[in-house]
Write a structure and sequence with these properties.
About 35% of the residues lie in helices and about 20% in strands. It has about 180 residues and is of the alpha/beta class. A seven-stranded mixed sheet has the order 7-6-3-1-2-8-9, with helices on both faces. A two-stranded antiparallel ribbon has the order 4-5. β4 and β5 form a beta hairpin.
Length: about 180
């Protein structure tokens, strides 16, 4: 699935160095997207699904992200949350075009121009293989922002080698 998603993202224009903003809860498609971005040499920027449209807009603008991946919605404490509505409000308020991929979770999906159905994209690119883009150890792998509860959100850029070294060490030291 990572290869199919990487191929689909490449098909809509994602290239090395682009920022792909991921605005969805902890669903299986989230790590698939993260790995697909890494495969393309694109940076992913995970934005907490509980943030408002304005907080998402600010992060889209700060990263100049031209790509957004979200879901139509999800359940939280038994109630449906309309995630796509927040994403649409943010997307239409930035000053640059944003291609959007929508993961169907609730079945209430309405796509407009510049929006793509995740499942159709994966189906169309099933079986594709995308060779990973070579990256230097100090090349950025992903971006994240602090919550901003005490001021302006701060940006943290994780590098490829540093992050992978930390994951390997944590796996050894914590998970034995």
């Amino acid at each position: 699935e990572v290869n199919a998603v990487a191929s689909a993202l490449r098909d809509i224009g994602v290239t090395e160095g682009d920022v792909v903003t991921l605005f969805m809860p902890g669903v299986p498609e989230l790590p698939v997207m993260m790995l697909a971005c890494a495969r393309l040499g694109a940076l992913h920027n995970v934005v907490f699904a509980g943030y408002s449209a304005d907080e998402l807009r600010a992060r889209l603008e700060r990263t100049e992200s031209g790509y957004l991946v979200t879901c139509d919605g999800y359940y939280r404490r038994g109630s449906a949350v309309n995630q796509k509505n927040k994403a649409d409000n943010a997307r239409t308020s930035v000053d640059h075009p944003v291609e959007t991929v929508v993961v169907p979770r609730l079945g209430d999906q309405y796509l407009s121009d510049g929006q793509h159905d995740y499942e159709r994209m994966v189906e169309a690119h099933a079986g594709d293989r995308v060779d990973p883009v070579e990256r230097e150890t100090d090349d950025p792998l992903f971006l994240t922002y602090t919550s901003g509860t005490t001021g302006e959100p701060g940006r943290v850029t994780h590098t490829t080698g540093g992050y992978l070294s930390h994951v390997a060490w944590t796996s050894h030291a914590v998970l034995d």
